[in-house]
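Hi support team,

I submitted a single chain yesterday and got back a structure, but I'm not sure I'm reading the token output correctly. Could someone confirm the output below corresponds to the sequence I sent? I've pasted both exactly as they appear in my results page.

Thanks,
R.
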Amino acid sequence: MKKHNYSAGPCILPQEVFQKSADAILDFNSSGLSLLEISHRSKDFVAVMDEARDLALELLDLKGKGYQALFLHGGASLEFLMVPYNLMKVNGKAAYFDTGTWASAAIKEAKLFGEINVVASSKDENYSYIPKGFTVPNDVDYFHCTSNNTIFGTQIKEFPNVSVPMVCDMSSDIFSRVLDFSKFDIIYAGAQKNMGPAGTTLVVVKEEILGKSGREIPSMLDYEKHIKAESMFNTPAVFPVYASLLTLQWLKNMGGIAAVEKLNQAKANLLYAEIDRNPYFKGVVKVEDRSNMNVVFLLENEEHTTLFDSMWKAAGISGLPGHRSVGGYRASMYNALPIESVQVLVDVMKDFESKI
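Hi R., thanks for writing in. Yes, this is the structure output for that exact sequence:
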């Protein structure tokens, strides 16, 4: 039976990425060697890294605009540290936007470095909305936000105009929608939610903002050192970088971000329409803040859980249970999830309604 993978991460990837990755594990570039055993300094892998970094900038329309793309270790969680290390001045301060679990985790780490001004938070309503109308002060070293909140199913639709460097954790919606990415000075994203397997992190940084913190930065946490070493300061995550490159190539061949955004919007429209129509389900976030990547919903009556669970499992659906912070269900609809899989879930929901 075909599986319909709604996992929040590690997530679904294009089938051609799986196939090409599998081929490379057996024999990479007809070298007679596995991708898993080649030197990261080999000509073949250096070409992979160079193309991956270049293609990331191209897709984000940041090529030739003073940005560098890096593939680093540690996931978004390490970026919670690297951002203040590189941008916050000694005895400095930063502004943070608290819209969910990962935004809150970033705030916790940044407090180790200086004063943190939380400009707005939706914690009061279990992160079920995106605050509006807040002001980012001009006297902070940077402003940090999280574009999409995987656990709670909210997404920032309009980013503020700020006069300080803007940093954004785009782990769960990078490459999914068209934005003016030049508004951001640092974008970071763990690969495992919309770009590749777990094990590498894409960081896109505007070079001119670096080197101004006045603090001593450990080598492994210094963006400038990683830029100088072209993402080879230490041994990179060879396989995840290669699989990410394949995913970026797939995205370009699809027509780029603008093309995949249309598909993502169609998937979101299809599922949200059923949630709103079906009397046995309900959404948990404000309509205007709904995420197109992570659709979070509940049963109106939890006594029906056993029946609904048996039905979606029988349909070959995987990864649907919600995070323990919210409960219910979470349908993660990343770029590679086909709309046919969304239709299967919608059909199950309709069939469920007929059985109650």
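A quick pointer for reading it: The chain has a mean pLDDT of 97. Let us know if anything else looks off.

Best,
Support desk
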